[in-house]
Specification:
Number of helices: 11
Structural class: alpha/beta
């Protein structure tokens, strides 16, 4: 499965700050689909289906939930971003009346509230860790709250970026870290993955690793504007924007993307993502 290229109209004022709702729409319409091959590979390996009761940490605007629900799974999603969560509700809840015997999706903004909907037998964390300083610690805290809602022997899936030499986007994302560091912005920027990030989180959360895999997830965009907007929607550039300004971040991001622009104007970067399957 490869990303679908969707063309979007270019902003007339690229330096204007984007609000949370705009970033969430860019995430849902441009960027979220880039990880669809990862979702599908994990679901196929774990045979996600009607017997699955899934809790998705950081569910975003709901694409991974939608794909699991399409397999018949009972899904619960949690995300702290109210704008992304609103899009997830719009995607998932209107169709719940046609789900027959399958329970309607549950969507909430706190892990504690999501855990109350247990027991779950699959917990997913599809937001790749190893991107920012502290993201592993944040995931450990979320797992400490979520895992007690799972049956013993249930599965937890953690995800992260693959080796830097196999991820073309990694060099582009360094712009976030450099601009944040130059401006001494609090909150950090792109840190870059480390080989044992996933195992470290699993160990600290009391999980038992039970296999892993790698999935190719190329990032493909219809044009440079879509590429810039999609990457900005990941929230990895927020510290850089605070340290400088949005115009400067967009300019340097476009420059970093230039080597990946094809003659037809599309932007294409090959990436590999890694997932770790754990048991509770």
């Amino acid at each position: 499965m490869t990303p679908t290229l969707v063309r979007h109209h270019r902003h007339t004022e690229p330096s204007a700050p984007a609000d949370g709702a705009s970033r969430a729409r860019d995430w849902a319409e441009i960027q979220e689909r880039m990880l669809a091959p990862l979702y599908e590979a994990v679901y196929a390996r774990l045979e996600v289906g009607p017997a699955t009761r899934m809790l998705a940490l950081g569910c975003g605007s709901g694409l991974a939930l939608l794909m699991a629900a399409g397999r018949g799974a009972r899904v619960t999603g949690v995300d702290a971003d109210p704008d992304r969560l609103a899009l997830a509700r719009a995607r998932l809840l209107p169709a719940s009346g046609d789900r027959g015997a399958t329970a309607a999706p549950r969507l909430t903004d706190t892990v504690a509230a999501a855990a109350e909907g247990g027991p779950h037998n699959l917990i997913t964390a599809f937001t790749p860790i190893g991107c920012e300083a502290g993201d592993g610690e944040e995931l450990v805290r979320a797992l400490e709250t979520a895992v007690p809602s799972a049956d013993r022997g249930s599965t937890v899936v953690l995800t992260g970026w693959g080796p830097p030499e196999r991820c073309a986007t990694e060099a582009v994302l360094r712009v976030a870290g450099r601009l944040a560091d130059d401006g001494r912005a609090p909150g950090g920027g792109w840190r870059g993955p480390r080989r044992d990030d996933l195992e470290d989180v699993a160990f600290r959360a009391g999980l038992k690793p039970d296999g892993s895999g790698r999935v190719a997830c190329p990032f493909g965009y219809a044009d440079m504007d879509s590429a810039v907007r999609g990457l900005l929607s990941t929230r990895l550039f927020e510290a850089a924007v605070r340290a400088t300004d949005r115009w400067q971040v967009e300019k340097e991001l476009a420059e970093a993307l230039h080597p990946h622009r094809r003659p037809d104007g599309t932007v294409w970067m090959s990436n590999v993502f890694r997932y770790l399957v754990c048991t509770v």
